[in-house]
Amino acid sequence: MLFNANEFILVFLPIVVIGYYLTRAFSKNIGFGFLTLASLVFYGYGEPIFIALLLASITFNYFIGCHLIDHKSKPVLIFGIAVNVAAISFFKYANFFISNFNYVTSAQTSLIHIALPLGISFYTFQKIAFLVDAYKSQIRKPRFIEYVLFVSFFPQLIAGPITHYNQIESQLRNRETIPLRLITAGIFLYSIGLFKKSFFADFSGAWADIVFNNPVGASPEQTLLGVIAYTLEIYFDFSGYSDMAIGLGMMFGIVLPINFNSPYKSKSIVEFWRRWHITLSTWLKDYIYIPLGGRGNSSFARTFNLMITMLVGGLWHGAAWTFVVWGGLHGIGLAINHAWLKIKPSCLTEENKIISRIYNLLCWALTFLFVAWLWTLFRANSFEDAITVSSNMMHLNLMQHSLSIPSLQDYFLHDYSSFASWLISENKNFIFNLCILTGLLFITWFSPNSISLKDKFQSNLFTAIFCTITIFTVVMANIFLVTPNAFIYFRF
Asked: What CA–CA distances, in Å, run from 390 to 204, 233, 394, 433, 469?
């Protein structure tokens, strides 16, 4: 079930919100039980068999974690982590390993035909963190219902944020009345995310899909638009999801950790990873980079540990070598960034304002271009497609184009699947389309962060109108225009 689908907006969410507060008024424990049951229904929507797998995993990790709290045992910790890694390896990476084994050995081992459980990458990391934190005595022993809700809470179950138990423990045990302002601010933040997803991400995604699904058939102009469009799609898609997840959590009195903080404003690749998928970056640092030795005793050790961490981060995103190389290149970028900080000339300090501003602008531009270039590899279906996309843009000639306003009459005279696909299909619209994408880029660069808007939230007529219009428009669009698209990070 999608956060932007009508069955969620009109049926599931209203029933769960009303049911939760009615049951919570009678008993806090019954309220949490109702919310847990609703989360399991959400997870099993369309694939009920996954509920059994999730509950089995939850039960196993709960008892292993409780044992580690009572009896600190490294063999038990290793066993618990190994079982979790084995589970995700089987469901997500088995065919990847088999395919590579067949390629290297020329064997004919058959692939395993099995569905990938939704959100397994997210809740596996979340449960591993729980086991490690239990071993380190950083958490109190939870009740079983609290742990089930901690893992299965539907706003964060499928695509994060990756939450630590001690981050929401007190909220799960909260017996106080949930402030109305928290609930209304949650609705506002959910509406912002819904707006980003439905109006910006899905529009950009239509252009990106046309190019990356058939890079050979795309013109240089279409290729450039597709690359920019995917850079925007993954930004607004993940930003929108993060807003919606936190907003939904707030509706139930649970504040989830921030997972997205205007990453395209970053002036370095180090800063980018402090702003993009914050909970994943933190997890990789705390449970892979630091256990490997962190900075170590030398620059080589630090670089080695950093590369291993980012390679794991790349593989976490998908069972393909493109993701591994994407993670490795980000690791190289981070290593170069750290090395530069050691040798950066003293003239580039904040004291010289003019030079400092020019330097910061160049740092921002270089970081953005590096990230956008690597998104091409992240989105491509293969290395060949990524090379084709890059080579297509080499043949771009901007001088041959002039601004041409598209005629809606042309759109209605042809049978196109969507308005977006029509716009990008006409090369004469190139400058016009480029202006649209540039406008969206300016939003990512200069608009205030959603969390800051949430922190300044005031329940007034403007916010009520914004929420109403956004939700109504999305519902109408889902009925008459398009089928809502899944979030990109749902596939991970």
From this structure: 19, 18, 7, 20, 40
